[in-house]
Sequence to fold (530 residues):
Amino acid sequence: MTEPDWLATDALAPSTAGALAPLYTAAAEGRLALPFCGACGSVLELEQDVCDSCEAAAVEWRDVEPAGTVHSVTRVHRREPSLIRTDSPYHVLDVQLASGHRLVLGTTRPTGRTIRIGDPVRIGFRTVGGIQLPAADPD
Amino acid sequence: MPVFEPAIIGLGMTEMSVKPGGTAQELASRALAAAVRDAGLALSDIDGLLVGSSQGVRPDRLGVSLARRGGLGDLALLEHVEMKGVTTAAMIQNAVLAVRAGLARAVACVFGDAPLRPGGSAGATYAHSGGNEGVRGLERVSGVLGSVPTYALAAARFLEVTGGSEEDLCAVALSGRSWATGNPHAVMRDPLTREEYFAARMVAEPLRVLDCARPVNGAVAVIVGDPAVPAGAHPPVHVRGMAQHHPVRRRRSPHESWFEPAGGGTADALDRALAMAGRRRDDLDAIQLYDPFSIVALSLLETYGFCGRGQAGALVRSGATAPGGSLPMNTGGGQLSGYYLQGMTPLAEAIVQLRGHGGGRQVTDASTVLVTGIGGRGDHHAFLVLDREPL
Fold:
C-alpha cells in the first residue's frame, strides 16, 4: 500500500508502456533518463523516433543530471475534483534540463514559494498509483 | 467534367448553447440542413461531405456517419478531416481543390461539438480527456489537465520574453468583447471593463477565465460550390488565397517551446496566401484569428507579422483591433467572447462580414477578410483569404 500522492489521484497514474517506458523504469530506481540519438548524441524529444540531425533511428536513453532551470511556470487554480487531490493552487513547470531536454512537470510537494522563469531547479520523484515519475523539487 | 471556380455559397449555424442539450451529431445534422437551405440547395444536391470533430475520445464525436444521419444522398467525396485546430481551414481548402478538380460540385464542410453535458462542465469534459499514455500521460499526472495549463505556460513564457504584461492579455479580452456586443451568436455580449477582467477567476496563472474560449454545444456548416447556382439569396464568398505551414519546432534547448521565433516561416505562408489572392496585408479589412486563449491572439499577431516582436500588446492596447480600429480582429468576439467551435468560429464570422450581415458589428465595406487556423500548440497553421470579388 503506497502513500497517496499529494497532487494527483490514482486515476491519473500514467501508463508505463510505450515510448516513455525507459523513463519510468529509470524513475523507479531514482534515476532520470532521457532520450538521445545513439548515432550522433543529439538531444531528442520524448516521443521522437528519428534524429533530426543525422536521420538515424537509434534512440538511446541515458541518465542525465537531475537539474535544470525553469523555462516557464504556471500556478493552476482550477482543480478537477476526482483527479486533483490538493485543495490549493499547484505549480506546473516547464523545466529546461542541463542535458538540453525540456520536461513539463509537477512538483514533488506543495509549495507557497514564488517560482520564476530562470530559477534553478532540482528534479526529484513522485509516486502516483505505485508509479514513480519525475517532478521538480520546489525548494 | 464541368469545372468552375468554387465559392462559399452556404452557411448554417445552430444556436450556440452554454447549456447541455443536443449531441454533436444532432447539432451537426441541423447545421448541415440550415447551410443547404441557406445556399438555396436541397440535401440531394450535396455530393461531397467533409466532417471535422473535436479531438479526444468522445463517444458522440462526429464522423463520416453524418452523411447517413444528416439525410444526404449518394456522395462522390467523403472524409473525416483531423488536423487539430486547422481542421476547418483545411476542410475548406480540400473542398475548393476537390471542386476545382471536378471530384464534386457541392461540398458541405461541417464541424460540431458538444462538450457540455448534464451534470458536468465543459472544463470537466476537457480535464478527463487525454488519456494516460506517452507525453500527454506524463503531463496530465503532472497536473496539466485540459489545455489551459498548457497555454498558461505559453503565456508566462511569451510575456517574460517579450516584456509584456497581463494588461496585454486584458486588452485582447476587451477588444473581443467590444465586438461581441454586436453579435447575437456570441455567448458573452455584456460590455466588459478592465476592472471586471482583473476580478475574473484565475484558471492557471496568468490566464483568467476571460482569457479562455467559451465552450458551447453547437455546430456550423459551410457549403463550397458553384457561385452561379444560388438564386441571388446571398452574395458568394470567394476563396482567393490559401496556404498551410507546419513548422517543426523542437521542444529542447536552445529553441522556444511555446511560440515561434521571428523568421519561423508562418508569416511567409500568410504572404503566400495573400499573393495567391492578389492581395496585400493592407487590403485586409478584418482578420479572424483562431483564438482559444488571449495569449494565442497576442502571439499570432507577431507570428503572422502584423507587428514586430514584443509589439502585439501595444498594438491591441492602442485599440487597433477593436471596433473603429485599423486592424479589426475577431469581429464576432472570437472564441473568447463569441463561442468556441474551433476553426468554424473565425470562418463563420468572415462569411457574415463579407455578406454584409454583421449588423451592429459590421465592418464598413468589408471586402477582403483573413481566416486563420492554428493547432497543436502552434505546430500547425492554415490561412484562407476570403473576398467579395472573384480572382
Remarks:
- Residues 10-137 of chain A form one domain.
- The longest strand of chain A covers residues 67-76.
- Residues 21-27 of chain A form the longest helix (7 residues).
- Chain A is about 5% helix and 35% strand.
